[in-house]
Design goal:
The protein is α+β, with helices and mostly antiparallel strands. The protein has 2 domains: 145 residues, no CATH class; 134 residues, no CATH class. It is built from 6 helices and 9 strands, in the order ββαβββββααββααα. The longest helix has 41 residues.
Length: 303
């Protein structure tokens, strides 16, 4: 076919659609590669699009079309900031080599393995393998240096506070397991009257009524208790990571960045109450909670 009638030959400033698999983009993924079309002649103006194009990746299992923007010249400065923070916090087991801009993130999986995607909050930095994932909506709004407090908070939460978080969740799970076991035996004493339970196959089992009640209550205690306790515990640690970050970058800078994001968040992405799941399934405080936490903070959070 002659070049003059090939439809894609002379199209400039366009975006390339590629196949990608959302389910492959997780913290444990292989390094993600940003594909770009060299024929693009100008950057995408994010402010003109209420729903900016999403970053595109290629993966061995193609499943969906995505769009990607042009590269951002501030990425080198963001990576330099990241390395400075890692050196300052003595973090040697994580080395991001690229910055990835995304508008969504995997929040979990449905039964059958179908990924559940959600909007990546605008005030979040996700530390994935070999790459820092930042919200695409804020790419043209924040200067590279303004990402310092957000990256610092993520490093504190994901790396510095990791052992504290694992121990805390383990202790809470063991606590509710002990409560369920103690309740099982206590109910047999409080409700000693015999009770006969008949199974679907016709077999019967007789024992104290309290024992049957305890068996019914145990799964609820073992699931609801640790889940709610871990949710609130993780949120507190997120806020603690913000305070630790404020100690090294300065609370005024952190507050000004979050305030700017809040003012830009006209569609409620940042202030929504349903902020669980982004970045590994952890619970997230709202923008307002983060601001209040920093505004009342006096210094030196982690003891």
């Amino acid at each position: 076919m002659p070049p003059s009638i090939v439809p894609w030959k002379n199209i400039g400033g366009m975006f390339l659609c590629v196949f990608a698999d959302h389910s492959e983009i997780q913290d444990s993924d292989q390094p993600l590669r940003l594909l770009r079309l060299s024929a693009c002649s100008k950057r995408c103006d994010i402010s003109r699009h209420p729903h900016p194009p999403r970053t595109a990746y290629y993966s061995p299992k193609p499943s969906a079309f995505l769009l990607f923007p042009m590269p951002f010249e501030g990425e080198d400065r963001i990576l330099e900031t990241f390395r400075e923070l890692c050196q300052q916090l003595t973090i040697r087991n994580y080395n991001a080599t690229s910055v990835t801009w995304r508008s969504d993130i995997q929040r979990g999986r449905m039964k059958g393995g179908t990924p559940i995607m959600g909007v990546l909050p605008w005030d979040i930095c996700v530390l994935s393998k070999n790459t820092i994932i930042l919200p695409l909506h804020m790419r043209e709004e924040l200067e590279p240096e303004q990402w310092r407090p957000i990256i610092a908070s993520s490093l504190f939460y994901k790396k510095t506070l990791r052992t504290r978080i694992i121990i805390g969740i383990t202790l809470r799970t063991l606590l509710f397991a002990a409560i369920a076991l103690a309740l099982y035996f206590a109910l047999q004493i409080l409700l000693p009257q015999p009770y006969t339970a008949v199974q679907s196959n016709g077999a019967s089992n007789t024992g104290p009524l309290g024992g049957f009640v305890g068996i019914l209550l145990a799964p609820i205690i073992l699931f609801v208790g640790p889940s709610y306790s871990s949710y609130t515990y993780l949120r507190r640690n997120r806020l603690l990571a913000d305070q630790d970050a404020a100690d090294i970058v300065g609370a005024p800078l952190f507050i000004s960045v979050l305030t700017q994001i809040q003012q830009l968040d006209t569609n409620g992405y940042g202030s929504t109450s349903n902020r669980r799941g982004a970045g590994g399934g952890y619970s997230l405080p709202t923008l307002q909670q983060r601001l209040q936490n920093l505004q009342t903070y006096s210094g030196k959070a982690t003891m």
